[in-house]
Design brief:
Layout: E1 19-22, H1 33-37, H2 39-42, H3 46-67, H4 73-87, H5 96-104, H6 113-122, E2 126-131, H7 135-144, E3 153-156, H8 167-177, E4 184-188, H9 191-200, E5 203-207, E6 223-225, H10 231-234
Parallel strand pairs: 1-2, 1-4, 2-3, 4-5, 5-6
Helix pairs in contact: 3-4
Length: 243
C-alpha cells in the first residue's frame, strides 16, 4: 500500500491565479459558533450537538446528490439539526431550533478572514465564495461579517442544484471568472472539499484548522495552511491567464 506523500510547503507549488475561491462553512465562518452562543441553554452537550449537526449536514448533501433529491442547504441544515438533537437524546424547548437556525445565518467569521481577503484584493486577485450554502444564507453571513466589499461574488450551488463535490458545483467558479480551473485557487478547511476541487482541476489549498490527516481520496492539496493568515504569501496574480 502506498502511503500518501507529504503535502508540499513550497510556495512555488501554487501557480499564478486569476481568482481565489473560498469554501464558506468551516473555512471563512466558524460552524460551531451558533451552538456556542446558545451553550448555556443547550447545556454541556452543546459541543457534541455542534459536531453531530455539522457531520450530518455534510452527509446529507452527499447522500442527496447520490439520490438525486436536491433541496436547499438551509433545509439540509435544519434536517441535520433535528437529527442531532434526536441522536443525543435532547429535547429542545419550543423555539430553540429556530433560534439556532437564525444564528447559523450569521456565523462568526474567523479572526484572520477580513485581513486575508483585503490583502488578496490589494494584490490584484479576485475573491469569491463557492459554497453549498443557499443564496440567502451566504448573503446573510457575508453581510453580518462585514465582508461584502471584500468579495467579488458569493457563488451558490443552488444555481446548479448539485452539492460539492460534484463537478457541476466547482464549475461555477470557472464560469464566473471566465478562466480554466488551473488558473483558480480554491481554499477549504474540509479535506473532502479540497480533494474534490483538486480533482476538478483547481489549485486546492487546505486550511487544516483541526490538524487532521490527509484524506485518502483522489486529488491532492497543493499546500497545507494552519490558518488563512499566510494565504496571500502563497498566491500571485495572473491576469494574463484570463481567456
Amino acid at each position: 500500500m502506498v502511503t500518501p506523500s507529504a503535502i508540499s510547503t513550497d510556495e512555488a507549488a501554487v501557480r499564478p491565479v486569476v481568482a481565489c475561491l473560498f469554501d464558506a462553512y468551516g473555512t471563512l465562518f466558524d460552524v460551531t459558533s451558533a451552538a456556542r452562543r446558545m451553550a448555556d441553554e443547550i447545556g454541556p452537550d452543546w459541543a457534541d450537538l455542534a459536531e453531530v449537526w455539522r457531520v450530518r449536514q455534510l452527509e446529507y448533501t452527499w447522500l442527496r446528490n447520490l439520490m438525486d433529491r436536491y433541496v436547499s442547504f438551509r433545509i439540509v441544515t435544519a434536517e441535520a439539526l433535528d437529527f442531532a438533537f434526536a441522536s443525543l437524546g435532547l429535547v429542545p424547548r419550543p423555539g430553540l431550533t429556530d433560534q439556532l437556525m437564525d444564528l447559523y445565518m450569521t456565523l462568526d467569521a474567523y479572526p484572520e478572514v477580513t485581513e486575508t481577503l483585503a490583502v488578496l484584493r490589494d494584490n490584484g486577485i479576485a475573491t469569491a465564495i463557492l459554497s453549498n450554502g443557499s443564496p440567502d444564507m451566504l448573503d446573510a453571513a457575508v453581510s453580518s461579517a462585514g465582508l461584502t466589499d471584500l468579495l467579488d461574488d458569493a457563488l451558490s450551488v443552488d444555481t446548479v442544484r448539485r452539492f460539492k463535490p460534484a463537478a457541476e458545483a466547482y464549475a461555477l467558479g470557472c464560469r464566473r471568472f471566465a478562466t480554466e480551473p488551473c488558473h483558480v485557487a480554491f481554499v477549504s478547511s474540509n479535506g473532502w472539499d479540497v480533494a474534490g476541487a483538486a480533482t476538478f482541476g483547481y489549485q486546492a489549498l487546505w486550511v487544516n484548522r483541526q490538524n487532521r490527516p490527509v484524506e485518502r481520496l483522489p486529488g491532492r492539496p497543493a499546500a497545507e495552511l494552519e490558518t488563512l493568515t499566510t494565504l496571500p504569501d502563497r498566491l500571485r496574480p495572473a491576469t494574463e491567464a484570463r481567456r
